[in-house]
Design goal:
By secondary structure, this protein is an alpha/beta fold. The protein is 37% helix and 17% strand. Helix 3 packs across helix 11 and helix 4 packs parallel to helix 5.
């Protein structure tokens, strides 16, 4: 688990207003095409209200960056993974949409294709092209130091989204915007307990290694089961790399090696949907013979809930554009930005899936 040098889980209440509406989610593209229309008002991202504060936040003055009007600026966005995943599609589109809405002079976008070395070179290349502010979706929590140092040397502020980096806030980066991943795991465990009655054998499809999302979602889930449902036994933990095909492969193997599995916790929807495919091929009924709970909130996973092939989905909202640019505007306006700006995430189950489908991405 990542060791944070400073811990503050808070956000600025006024960001709620700034993120109450969303330009356009435009995220129907996925590995399984979906023609449903997205309701951006349902899918809007919001920051939690401040709960506690320790120490000061990060301001333009303390960071040592020059004042900047985003309308005259070159902004860079570094995406970490290929956009074959609905989360990444929605995230990138949200950044593009909001940059246009904010009147940003020029937006540079890159995609590291899940290669850390490429993400480092991507960021360095954007700096060479004159990027004055960077939004980075880190591939891993460790390893981006060369890129962060290159940005710091040019006094270019870096805002990280959706994954944390093991670095010093207000020195290597301004702030982290994203979900409470431990809490997501805990909520997934609560949903699993509810749908199974607290008894059964659970397999965990782990995300990719090397980042805090996988570590935290695992910890939250495992700790909550231990505390609240000792009758739910975790019998397998295998990585599916956050990919649908890998999730399917792992589930196919588990059906053979652990035929008595009664539940699956997938650390993202793509792996969960892969598990659904594997279970069907094996003659099992997903959502009934084997309960499935996952995290993300993609349209296909919520549709699987509607179809009775899934049991619960904990949202991890990827629409960071409005919050990222609102945070940047406040930073350049002289306001202090908390180290961690934590967003709210909804939950889907059979009671609300059909009505909430329009808010999925």
């Amino acid at each position: 688990m990542m060791i944070q040098r400073r811990t503050r889980t808070l956000a600025v209440a006024c960001l709620l207003a700034a993120t109450a509406t969303l330009a356009a989610s435009g995220c129907s593209k996925s590995e399984t095409p979906d023609t449903a229309t997205s309701d951006s008002s349902q899918g809007a991202q919001a920051a939690k209200s401040p709960e506690s504060s320790s120490g000061s936040g990060c301001s333009l003055q303390t960071y040592g960056a020059p004042k900047l009007d985003l309308k005259d600026a070159v902004v860079g966005f570094s995406q970490s993974e290929k956009e074959a995943n609905p989360f990444r599609i929605a995230e990138t589109q949200s950044i593009k949409d909001e940059a246009e809405k904010a009147g940003v002079k020029k937006l540079l976008t890159t995609n590291a294709q899940s290669q850390l070395s490429k993400q480092i070179s991507d960021i360095q290349d954007m700096l060479s092209q004159g990027a004055q502010f960077l939004i980075v979706a880190p591939l891993n929590s460790d390893g981006l130091e060369p890129a962060l140092k290159a940005a710091a040397a040019k006094k270019v502020p870096v805002l990280t989204i959706d994954r944390k980096v093991n670095a010093t806030a207000c020195e290597d980066y301004v702030a982290f915007l994203g979900s409470d991943f431990v809490e997501q795991g805990k909520r997934a465990a609560d949903a699993m307990i509810k749908t199974t009655g607290g008894k059964g054998k659970v397999a965990i499809l782990l995300g990719a290694s090397g980042n805090n999302v996988t570590t935290d979602r695992t910890k939250g889930f495992v700790d909550q089961l231990k505390a609240e449902a000792p009758g739910l036994e975790i019998v397998a933990q295998q990585t599916g790399e956050f990919a649908r095909d890998k999730g399917q492969q792992v589930m196919e193997q588990l059906i053979q090696s652990k035929p008595d599995i009664t539940a699956v916790y997938a650390e993202n929807d793509e792996m969960g949907l892969g598990a659904v495919t594997a279970l069907k091929a094996a003659g099992k009924k997903p959502g009934k013979d084997v309960k499935i709970v996952s995290i993300d909130g993609t349209r296909n996973a919520v549709q699987a809930l509607v179809n009775g092939e899934y049991n619960a989905v904990i949202e991890s909202n990827p629409r960071f554009g409005p919050l990222a640019f609102a945070t940047a505007q406040k930073f350049y306006g002289g306001e202090e930005i908390p180290e961690n700006v934590i967003i709210t995430d909804r939950a889907y189950d059979e009671s609300n899936a059909k009505a909430s489908l329009g808010g999925a991405f």
